[in-house]
């Protein structure tokens, strides 16, 4: 049996991009992942598909497992020869009870490593525009638990030293004890007018920041309904927030946006929306599959490539599928040297550059009609044209080329089909009014979403519909749905820019 090992990984404060490279590498190796309440589930994208996931989350009043049981679980999995990734919110050694787990692992003879993480004590204030130190304002900071061990006879917190000797105080897990914290600090000389802030769900797209003063903090917790998890920051650095805030004033901050693209296509859209501050919900309504004829049509076309004068791509998926099959056949791009290449838009053209090719024709507007118009002066009327594309697509381009005298072969490069695996999640989000915007990047995303909600347009009441172009928008109208946002530029960046303008206008 191979030797097991446990990695205690600091998962960071919430933003999955704050995971360390070492933490990512350990996740990729793991046979078992043991996750906390505050460890963002998006980190599981780095796990192997066959990795076991065990949730052991603990929050106030609700413990899936007791701490000692979690420690024994880690030891047990390690003794089975498993590589275990123990994902802990923030840093394992900053009130993460990582030391307690290590003591059990050491006693059980299980090898371990601690992988530090970005602590919310620094990251949450930073994402709120509050630096824990700043020249001329704060030269020191302290991180204090707001929830001491209830079995202790007396507090080990030196309130007198904290009140008078440290510039910035950050209390973790202290929302429920705000009154005690504030009273102790003021008792030992901290002014009631000292600026303070609560940063709830720090670094996440639904982060909330509440500013107050030390004297009013306990009252405001009740009045504003502030709940855990939140970092409580006390000090003059809080006054820097208005000058230094950057995270929660991004254009799409606070907007929950459903991305209906297939998961294989969604990454670019999700990334750009995330950068604009949105909370993205990946709920794909379509999936990209291999051709229904098992590439028969594509393979036949590849065998007679020398006959074609033009190769035209109408999507990035078409590019990906065509070149994957080309390479699998033992050929490479030299087989295309005699052909001219057309691309329906810049995104498709960019995909071609990954294979070292530049399109000869890319229209200024990204529709089949525009590509046809741009190609017309380049054709003599007898060219042989190959179009690898989706099984179901508009006939405008091939019919238009035939009208110009071309001989056109359309081969199935891929097919889209309904992805119903997320139907329950979609219905739950819409029934509980959990989305502000839904993005549609093709007509098929519209058809399949409406099928999954059984045509219930009432579920979309109050939800902004954003379409990548007029064709997709026209599909929405077939269901008597009027999109509020229609991108003039039919690309991901164009769609996001249209959403940003629409939100700003609203």
UniProtKB/TrEMBL annotation:
Keywords: Methyltransferase, Porphyrin biosynthesis, S-adenosyl-L-methionine, Transferase
InterPro entries: 4pyrrol_Mease, 4pyrrol_Methylase_sf, 4pyrrol_syn_uPrphyn_synt_sf, 4pyrrol_synth_uPrphyn_synth, 4pyrrole_Mease_sub1, 4pyrrole_Mease_sub2, CobA/CysG_C, Siro_Cobalamin_biosynth
E.C. no: 2.1.1.107
One BP term from GO: siroheme biosynthetic process
GO molecular function terms noted in the UniProt entry: uroporphyrin-III C-methyltransferase activity; uroporphyrinogen-III synthase activity
Keyword presence, S-adenosyl-L-methionine: yes
Domain named Tetrapyrrole biosynthesis uroporphyrinogen III synthase: residues: 268-496
Pfam family, one: HEM4
Annotated ranges, domain Tetrapyrrole methylase: 5-217
Protein known as: uroporphyrinogen-III C-methyltransferase
